[in-house]
Specification:
Elements (H helix, E strand, L loop, with lengths): L2 E8 L6 H17 L4 E3 L15 H5 L8 H13 L2 E8 L6 E7 L5 E6 L20 E6 L2 E7 L8 H9 L4 E5 L6 H14 L2 E5 L13 E3 L15 E4 L5 E8 H10 L32
Parallel strand pairs: 1-2, 2-3, 7-8, 8-9
Antiparallel strand pairs: 1-12, 3-4, 4-5, 6-7, 9-10, 10-11
């Protein structure tokens, strides 16, 4: 069976860009030794998502270009290791810094350059510039081609994020993260995988990082198998809080058979009934509050 191996780099930052570069490269090399086809970093690895309880001017000054030496180093490494790498960073951008991810394929080619669409505007992320679009690319891997999309942390709390990635053909969604992964957030990821019949791999910081607790996870999106009487657990990996590299395995052929025969995803949608989703004038029936996500 075609098995795609995704390394979730649940590692703690070092406090400097140079330190994170060195540690990130070492983690990717270890992931390759473990047999990984894709290595995924937690959110904003370039500065360890260190944006809380600091002057805005201080942490925004740490933004780096998408074409910086830091980012390009992982492109070169992806080619050297013959392994795709999804590197995250605080991006220096003309309209203001962005929370970004670049996915390099195993040939070192940029396949996705994504900026977090749903920035946490109820908190310090209001100082970030949100992205404008969700992207899907065809990634050439050791076990064949797979269609990959991306969303970042708070994006998961909006069903539309994963839904549009599914409609664009995603089979796997990569999710860098930096917050406590508790039962409700894990349930969101499980739901996004279930309702869209796709796999979701999430990488978080370990519990040694403030306001994070590990819990990196992977859901394969396959809720039913013909040989089983009932449903199955879609969770194929659930890390604890410890720092480490966790390897999730995704059976592509199984997923594709499931997508071709089951009833979720795009099988029986009725888009004409959803016009209200496009109405930007609708006010929510609740008051926005401040919380960390």
């Amino acid at each position: 069976m075609n098995t795609l191996k995704i390394a979730l780099l649940q590692i703690a930052p070092c406090g400097t860009l140079e330190g994170n570069l060195e540690k990130g490269i070492a983690a990717c090399r270890k992931a390759k030794d473990m047999g990984a086809d894709i290595a995924l970093f937690p959110e904003m690895w370039s500065n360890g998502y260190n944006i809380y309880k600091r002057p805005v001017e201080q942490w925004t000054a740490e933004a780096i270009h998408a074409d910086s030496e830091f980012v390009n180093a992982f492109g070169a490494l992806a080619k050297e290791l013959d392994m795709a790498i999804a590197i995250t960073f605080l991006e220096q951008y003309e309209d203001g810094p962005r929370n970004s991810m670049v996915l390099f394929d195993r040939f070192g080619t940029r396949k996705i350059a994504y900026a977090k669409v749903h920035t946490c505007d109820f908190d310090v992320e209001r100082n970030l510039t949100p992205g404008e679009e969700f992207y899907v690319t065809t990634l050439d891997t050791r076990c064949g081609k797979v269609k990959v999309g991306a969303m970042i942390c708070y994006d998961r709390e909006f069903p539309e994020s994963a839904r549009i990635l599914m409609l664009k053909g995603a089979e796997l969604i990569l999710v860098p993260n930096a917050c406590p992964m508790e039962i409700n957030r894990l349930s969101q990821l499980r739901s996004r995988a279930y309702e869209n019949m796709l796999a979701i791999a999430t990488c978080n910081y370990p519990d040694t990082v403030p306001d994070c607790n590990g819990g990196s996870s992977a859901f394969d999106g396959v809720a039913y198998l013909p040989e089983l009487d009932g449903s199955r657990d879609m969770c194929v990996l659930q890390a604890d809080g410890a720092e480490g590299i966790y390897l999730a395995e995704l059976h592509l052929e199984q997923l594709r058979r499931y997508q071709a025969t089951e009833v979720h995803g795009n099988a029986f949608r009725r888009p004409r009934k959803y016009e209200l989703l496009l109405d930007t004038k609708v006010e929510p029936p609740f008051v926005r509050c401040n919380r960390r996500t």
